[in-house]
Amino acid sequence: xxxxxxxxxxxxxxxxxxxxxxxxxxxxxxxxxxxxxxxxxxxxxxxxxxxxxxxxxxxxxxxxxxxxxxxxxxxxxxxxxxxxxxxxxxxxxxxxxxxxxxxxxxxxxxxxxxxxxxxxxxxxxxxxxxxxxxxxxxxxxxxxxxxxxxxxxxxxxxxxxxxxxxxxxxxxxxxxx
Length: 177
Description:
By secondary structure, the protein is mainly beta. The chain has two helices and twelve strands.
């Protein structure tokens, strides 16, 4: 059974703070996320962003640990099915399940945009972006509080420690022999 983390990584029409390169806000134009999914971009699912070495846990082009992406109501949603016997996947799942990494962030490449003013502040308005070669990352705090990460289990309150003999039912913990 895969370890699944799902959530929302980006939304259009909202100024996010700060952009890592500029230290200013960035706003994604409506439609940019849906257009970025056309053609099936290669996107990694990471624990923290990967431009300085993030940890890959799943990918859109992986059969072993697949990640799906979709856009609904201008929100980019993801579902990553990680390999359940990989320690890094178990640790990532536990961090999200405990609420330590409760938001998500999107690493992307700006194709086109312009500087605009929002509430008296200059922000970059992205009109086209590419996700190909980018990432969706679980993070402690993303650029937008509207992002989220959560664990999911097809079998109710399944816990990854079941693989090593521990059972954690909803009412408490007990040892399985």
